[in-house]
Every structure is written in C-alpha cells, then in structure tokens.
Write a structure and sequence with these properties.
Blueprint (H helix, E strand, L loop, with lengths): L10 E5 L5 E9 L5 E6 L2 H9 L14 E5 L3 E4 L5 H5 L11
Antiparallel strand pairs: 1-2, 1-5, 2-3, 3-4
Length: 98
C-alpha cells in the first residue's frame, strides 16, 4: 500500500531498473495497486537510458515513450520553475526581526 498520494499529470523523479534517474509524468493509473503509467519528459533521459543499455535509438520523442512506474521507484515530485520570481528579480526579501 502506498503511503504517498500520486497525482495524475504530475512529474516525478524516478529511479529506473536500468540505473539512471529520470523525470516521468504520470498519465494513468494501472489496475494493479501501486503501479502507474507515465511518459518521459526530457530528451536527455532517453539518451541516458540508451547509454544504460535500454533499446532506444535516441531519436524518440519523450512524450511517445510510455512506461510503468512502481511506488517504490518514485524518489520525489519535481517542482515547477517559478516564473514569478524571475519577474521580481529572483530575490526573496524578508523583513528583519527587531
């Protein structure tokens, strides 16, 4: 049984059986408990898996490479880059305590 809640459409960092750590977007839930279906989000992940021995040509589109993800493979959720901080200069200012 999973202790964490996995949301569909969220990108997670996943440790693959081939060795590399990749980013996968969860697209669907399998009928088996604790198993999810997801697609890769970065082209560099495809190249890393190819170098690790997975039979990819290296020219595949990451969104067209589905795979199964188990609960215990998920390391963490990948946060989106904050665009609003770039608009304000990227500096978060706090008031000093008196």
């Amino acid at each position: 049984m999973s202790k964490r809640s996995i949301k569909l459409g969220t990108v997670y960092e996943v440790k693959t059986f081939a060795g590399p750590v990749v980013h996968i977007k969860i697209t669907d839930k399998s009928q088996i408990e604790g198993v999810y279906i997801g697609v890769h989000t970065r082209q560099s992940d495809i190249v890393a898996l190819k170098d690790a021995g997975v039979c990819y040509t290296g020219s595949e589109c990451p969104a067209e490479c589905p795979g199964y993800v188990y609960d215990y493979q998920i390391i963490k959720r990948v946060n989106k880059k904050r665009i609003d901080q770039k608009r304000s200069g990227g500096v978060i200012r706090r008031k000093r305590k008196k």
